[in-house]
Design goal:
Distance between the termini: 64 Å
Structural class: mainly beta
Number of helices: 2
Radius of gyration: 18 Å
Shape: globular
Helix content: 10-25%
Number of strands: 10
Order of helices and strands: HEEEEEEEEEEH
C-alpha cells in the first residue's frame, strides 16, 4: 500500500507465518516480520506485522510497520499502518503515517503519535457513598 519496497519486506524468507489452520492463545514477541492468516488472541510485539484478509487478531499490536486486512480488535501502536479494503477494525490506532483503502470497516479512535494515553477513572465505593449520604 505504501510502496512496492515496503510490501517486499513481508515476502522475505525470514517472515514467521501463522497459517489459516492455526489458533494461538497467548502473547507473541518476535523480531522481523510476522504474517497472520489464522486466529490469535493475545498481544503482539514485532518489527512488522501483516494481518491477512482471512486472519483474526484480538489483542494489541506494537510494531514499526503494520498492514491490517483481516479482523482486528484492540489497540495498535505502529509507526506506519496500512489498512486494506477487507479490514474490520475495532479499537484504537496510534500511528505516525497511515494509509487506508476504501471499503474497510473501522470503529476506531485515531491518535497521531505513539504515546500511550491512559484514562484515569476514579472508582467510587457505592456502599461508602451511601453511608456518607445517610449520615
Amino acid at each position: 500500500m505504501f510502496s512496492k519496497d515496503d510490501k517486499e519486506s513481508f515476502k522475505s524468507s525470514d517472515s514467521s507465518v501463522i497459517g489459516t489452520e492455526m489458533q494461538i492463545n497467548g502473547n507473541i514477541k518476535c523480531q522481523g516480520s510476522l504474517v497472520i492468516k489464522g486466529t490469535v488472541k493475545g498481544n503482539i510485539e514485532c518489527d512488522e506485522i501483516r494481518l491477512s484478509s482471512e486472519g483474526v487478531l484480538k489483542g494489541s499490536i506494537k510494531s514499526k510497520d503494520s498492514e491490517i486486512s483481516g479482523k482486528f480488535e484492540g489497540n495498535i501502536f505502529s509507526d506506519t499502518i496500512a489498512i486494506g479494503s477487507t479490514a474490520s477494525i475495532k479499537g484504537g490506532i496510534n500511528y505516525n503515517r497511515m494509509q487506508a483503502e476504501p471499503g474497510a470497516k473501522l470503529e476506531v479512535d485515531f491518535l497521531l503519535g505513539l504515546e500511550e494515553k491512559t484514562k484515569v477513572s476514579k472508582k467510587t465505593n457505592l456502599a461508602k457513598s451511601l453511608k456518607t449520604i445517610k449520615g
